[in-house]
């Protein structure tokens, strides 16, 4: 068989979760909560089913859900998206990202991405014969050097993908970063894909800088978000994307033949649940407590870190412990010490290894305590 993705093997999330389960290790690798979502939200899904939302949803998504998202976006980012033409409900952010790339990237188009990067971007670009133009961000701050971005932009640049709060580093971009990006993109036709799935998971009173807030970006941007992250339901695979009408029209041309529509009763439930803003406004406090607990429990360990500013991931540097490569160390931690993490080099350019591992702290207090006990013994 001639592979369309000869360099791609199984995603690290599957590898590490499988290894964790095979070795009975605490799984802080793949990002998902080990606690349940709200019973109220589950009840609303039942209600949706009982009320008969059991056939295809509208292709673009349930109008009540799109209206709630429009309201939320206006409230949080002072940007009005038309629910009819500028908001589409997707089966997770991954489907939105794939569909955006599919709708716009053709052979020879260049797409700038920042490494380490969420692992779905690159194969999605390659499948459409686009050229990945990676820019390596440097540990420990993972700041974007806009001078380098400027050098990489040329007439073949079709798209730039940014991700804030950033998986796996937990860093966020500043207002100044977004203004710099707007300045660079001015006068070009470059599409921005702003992956904002962790938009509500941000700490220390910091503000999420959505592309929606910047007129020079919003008018060329797709913004993706994920209900999996926001409502602790990664297994439901529900998300949405926002974009100006002209871009969204092209998106929907692909979306209608890709999935056609997303889960109907869950859309009903999400629309009802979004009516209480507290359900997402409580997230910074909820996850900051988990981050702080995890960091306080491991403060006497030999791991070092810069606290995450957002996401539910914490990078830990282990160079005081060993200089093994991160893949080998992550494997050894899972098999011998019974704790699974994600080696960051798999997301880096040329698999550059900074001796850091990613740990997911979207976990119950007991899980975090057991994990910290192990980490303190290493
Ligand atoms: N982008 C980033 C940066 C992510 O971390 C994730 C979740 N793994 C996604 C997109 C995909 O989100 P979903 O699970 O909704 O497809
Ligand atoms: N986004 C999750 C992570 O970064 C996992 C997504 C997946 O398993 N594909 O861990």
TrEMBL record:
Keywords linked to the UniProt accession: Aminotransferase, Pyridoxal phosphate, Transferase
SUPFAM superfamilies: PLP-dependent transferases
Alphabetical list of Pfam families matching this protein: Aminotran_1_2
Source organism superkingdom: Bacteria
InterPro entries, alphabetized: Aminotransferase_I/II_large, Kynurenine-oxoglutarate_AT, PyrdxlP-dep_Trfase, PyrdxlP-dep_Trfase_major, PyrdxlP-dep_Trfase_small
GO cellular component, one term: cytoplasm
GO molecular function, a single term: pyridoxal phosphate binding
Cofactor: pyridoxal 5'-phosphate
Aminotransferase class I/classII large domain span: 25-374
Gene3D superfamilies: Aspartate Aminotransferase, domain 1, Type I PLP-dependent aspartate aminotransferase-like (Major domain)
Family, per entry: Belongs to the class-I pyridoxal-phosphate-dependent aminotransferase family.
Protein name: Aminotransferase class I/II-fold pyridoxal phosphate-dependent enzyme
